[in-house]
Amino acid sequence: MGDRYNIHSQLEHLQSKYIGTGHADTTKYEWLVNQHRDSYSSYLGHPDLLNYFAVCENEAKARVRFNLMEKMLQPCGPPPDKPED
Fold this sequence. Notes:
By secondary structure, this protein is mainly α. Helices cover 66% and strands 0% of the residues.
């Protein structure tokens, strides 16, 4: 029983520390937004990937970086309407 409580408390700690780990009430939209933002931040953090995207799109690295930062605001479009209770 002690191990089960320990694992549960570790999971709660991770969920409070890192937003992208999700929880039982995470919607599909929130999960997709977290995945897209994680991907974009990884692209920005690896200069070789940024260079690759810049060459593929025939754009400057600064323009590609700017476009990725803009996409991080709403990567999956506006949030869906929440049903009223």
